[in-house]
Design goal:
It is a single chain. By secondary structure, the chain is an alpha+beta fold. Helix content is 36%, strand content 15%. It has 2 helices and 4 strands; from the N terminus they run H-E-E-E-E-H. The chain has helices at 2-13, 55-66; strands spanning 19-20, 27-28, 43-45, 48-50. A two-stranded antiparallel ribbon has the order 1-2. The longest helix has 12 residues, at 2-13. The chain starts with a helix and ends with a helix.
């Protein structure tokens, strides 16, 4: 599942891990641990931890980032 989620983030943002979008708003960084294993997969957006990220949550997160 992690590879699908990674690919979905990269495709939606048009960048790969370690890169930043052309507008400078989003950087996609891999991290070893967010301290949230019980709710993985997890992402951090603007300092806010988001747990149990699946396709539905991914779309919601990206919609929020695009605002």
């Amino acid at each position: 599942f992690r590879s699908q989620l990674t690919a979905a983030f990269e495709a939606a943002l048009g960048i790969r891990f370690g890169e930043t979008t052309a507008d400078g708003r989003v950087t996609l960084d891999p991290v070893y641990c967010l301290g949230n294993c019980a709710l993985s997969p997890a992402v951090m957006v603007d300092g806010e931890l988001q747990g149990r990220v699946d396709g539905t949550r991914l779309r919601a997160i990206l919609a929020e980032v695009e605002r």
